[in-house]
Amino acid sequence: MNVGDAAKRSGLPAKTIRYYEEIGLISPRRADNGYRDYSNDDIHRLAFLRRARNLGFSIDDCRQLMALYQDRSRASHDVREIAAAHVKAIEEKVRELQSMRSTLRTLIDACHGDQRPDCPILDDMAGAEPPAGSSAPA
Q: What contacts 46, CB < 8 A, 6 or more positions away?
Protein backbone atom coordinates (compact mmCIF):
# COMPACT_ATOMS: atom_id res chain seq x y z
CA MET A 1 0.00 0.00 0.00
CA ASN A 2 1.16 3.58 -0.56
CA VAL A 3 2.10 6.12 2.09
CA GLY A 4 -1.36 7.73 2.03
CA ASP A 5 -3.03 4.42 2.80
CA ALA A 6 -0.40 3.65 5.43
CA ALA A 7 -1.10 7.02 7.02
CA LYS A 8 -4.82 6.33 7.20
CA ARG A 9 -4.36 2.84 8.61
CA SER A 10 -1.66 3.75 11.13
CA GLY A 11 -3.10 7.08 12.27
CA LEU A 12 0.16 8.89 11.51
CA PRO A 13 0.71 11.72 9.04
CA ALA A 14 2.51 10.74 5.83
CA LYS A 15 5.28 13.21 6.70
CA THR A 16 5.91 11.39 10.00
CA ILE A 17 5.99 8.04 8.24
CA ARG A 18 8.57 9.33 5.78
CA TYR A 19 10.61 10.73 8.68
CA TYR A 20 10.50 7.38 10.49
CA GLU A 21 11.83 5.76 7.33
CA GLU A 22 14.53 8.42 6.96
CA ILE A 23 15.84 7.75 10.48
CA GLY A 24 15.60 3.98 10.08
CA LEU A 25 12.66 3.15 12.35
CA ILE A 26 10.84 1.44 9.48
CA SER A 27 11.97 0.11 6.13
CA PRO A 28 9.10 -0.46 3.71
CA ARG A 29 9.98 -2.34 0.58
CA ARG A 30 10.08 -0.50 -2.70
CA ALA A 31 7.83 -1.45 -5.59
CA ASP A 32 9.26 -1.84 -9.09
CA ASN A 33 8.32 1.79 -9.80
CA GLY A 34 10.39 2.95 -6.80
CA TYR A 35 7.42 3.88 -4.64
CA ARG A 36 7.22 2.74 -1.04
CA ASP A 37 5.06 -0.32 -0.55
CA TYR A 38 3.88 -0.66 3.05
CA SER A 39 2.92 -4.10 4.34
CA ASN A 40 0.56 -4.98 7.16
CA ASP A 41 3.65 -5.56 9.33
CA ASP A 42 4.81 -2.00 8.52
CA ILE A 43 1.40 -0.68 9.56
CA HIS A 44 1.66 -2.64 12.81
CA ARG A 45 5.12 -1.16 13.49
CA LEU A 46 3.83 2.34 12.70
CA ALA A 47 0.91 1.88 15.11
CA PHE A 48 3.40 0.66 17.74
CA LEU A 49 5.51 3.79 17.19
CA ARG A 50 2.45 6.05 17.32
CA ARG A 51 1.44 4.58 20.69
CA ALA A 52 4.97 4.81 22.09
CA ARG A 53 5.31 8.44 20.96
CA ASN A 54 1.87 9.24 22.42
CA LEU A 55 3.20 7.90 25.73
CA GLY A 56 6.05 10.39 25.41
CA PHE A 57 8.90 8.03 24.60
CA SER A 58 11.79 9.63 22.73
CA ILE A 59 12.82 8.48 19.27
CA ASP A 60 15.82 6.70 20.79
CA ASP A 61 13.55 4.96 23.31
CA CYS A 62 11.21 3.98 20.47
CA ARG A 63 14.15 2.53 18.55
CA GLN A 64 15.11 0.41 21.59
CA LEU A 65 11.52 -0.60 22.30
CA MET A 66 10.95 -1.58 18.67
CA ALA A 67 14.11 -3.70 18.70
CA LEU A 68 13.01 -5.36 21.93
CA TYR A 69 9.50 -5.91 20.56
CA GLN A 70 10.91 -7.67 17.51
CA ASP A 71 13.36 -9.75 19.59
CA ARG A 72 11.40 -12.77 20.82
CA SER A 73 14.29 -13.74 23.10
CA ARG A 74 14.19 -10.36 24.87
CA ALA A 75 14.14 -10.02 28.62
CA SER A 76 11.10 -8.11 29.84
CA HIS A 77 13.45 -6.54 32.40
CA ASP A 78 15.03 -4.51 29.58
CA VAL A 79 11.65 -3.13 28.54
CA ARG A 80 10.74 -2.42 32.14
CA GLU A 81 13.97 -0.43 32.65
CA ILE A 82 13.19 1.82 29.68
CA ALA A 83 9.63 2.39 30.89
CA ALA A 84 10.73 3.02 34.49
CA ALA A 85 13.33 5.56 33.37
CA HIS A 86 10.65 7.29 31.32
CA VAL A 87 8.29 7.45 34.31
CA LYS A 88 11.11 8.96 36.39
CA ALA A 89 11.64 11.65 33.73
CA ILE A 90 7.88 12.34 33.62
CA GLU A 91 7.76 12.68 37.41
CA GLU A 92 10.65 15.18 37.30
CA LYS A 93 8.86 17.16 34.60
CA VAL A 94 5.68 17.16 36.72
CA ARG A 95 7.67 18.54 39.67
CA GLU A 96 9.11 21.26 37.44
CA LEU A 97 5.65 22.15 36.12
CA GLN A 98 4.21 22.26 39.65
CA SER A 99 7.01 24.59 40.70
CA MET A 100 6.33 26.85 37.71
CA ARG A 101 2.63 26.87 38.54
CA SER A 102 3.36 27.79 42.16
CA THR A 103 5.70 30.61 41.16
CA LEU A 104 3.23 31.98 38.64
CA ARG A 105 0.35 31.84 41.13
CA THR A 106 2.46 33.79 43.64
CA LEU A 107 3.34 36.37 41.00
CA ILE A 108 -0.28 36.65 39.87
CA ASP A 109 -1.38 37.18 43.48
CA ALA A 110 1.26 39.93 43.85
CA CYS A 111 0.08 41.72 40.70
CA HIS A 112 -2.58 44.37 41.23
CA GLY A 113 -3.92 43.85 37.70
CA ASP A 114 -4.93 47.48 37.40
CA GLN A 115 -3.93 50.45 35.24
CA ARG A 116 -0.63 51.04 37.07
CA PRO A 117 2.57 50.22 35.16
CA ASP A 118 4.34 48.36 37.97
CA CYS A 119 4.11 44.61 37.45
CA PRO A 120 5.69 41.97 39.73
CA ILE A 121 5.32 39.38 36.98
CA LEU A 122 7.46 41.33 34.51
CA ASP A 123 9.85 42.38 37.29
CA ASP A 124 10.43 38.73 38.17
CA MET A 125 11.05 37.77 34.56
CA ALA A 126 13.54 40.64 34.27
CA GLY A 127 15.30 39.51 37.44
CA ALA A 128 14.35 42.66 39.33
CA GLU A 129 13.77 42.61 43.05
CA PRO A 130 10.07 42.91 43.96
CA PRO A 131 9.03 46.12 45.69
CA ALA A 132 9.19 46.16 49.51
CA GLY A 133 6.15 44.51 51.03
CA SER A 134 5.46 42.40 47.92
CA SER A 135 4.99 38.67 48.41
CA ALA A 136 6.52 37.80 45.03
CA PRO A 137 9.53 35.45 45.17
CA ALA A 138 12.95 36.87 44.42
A: 6, 10, 12, 17, 20, 26, 38
Cα–Cα distance for residue pair 93/88, rounded to 1 Å: 9
Length of the chain: 138
Q: Is the pLDDT of residue 137 over 90?
A: no
Confidence at residue 40, expressed as pLDDT on a 0 to 100 scale:
95
pTM for this prediction: 0.77
Q: Which fold has domain 1-59?
A: Multidrug-efflux Transporter Regulator; Chain: A; Domain 2 (1.10.1660)
pLDDT greater than 50 at residue 46: yes
Cβ atoms 28, 37 nearer than 8 A = yes
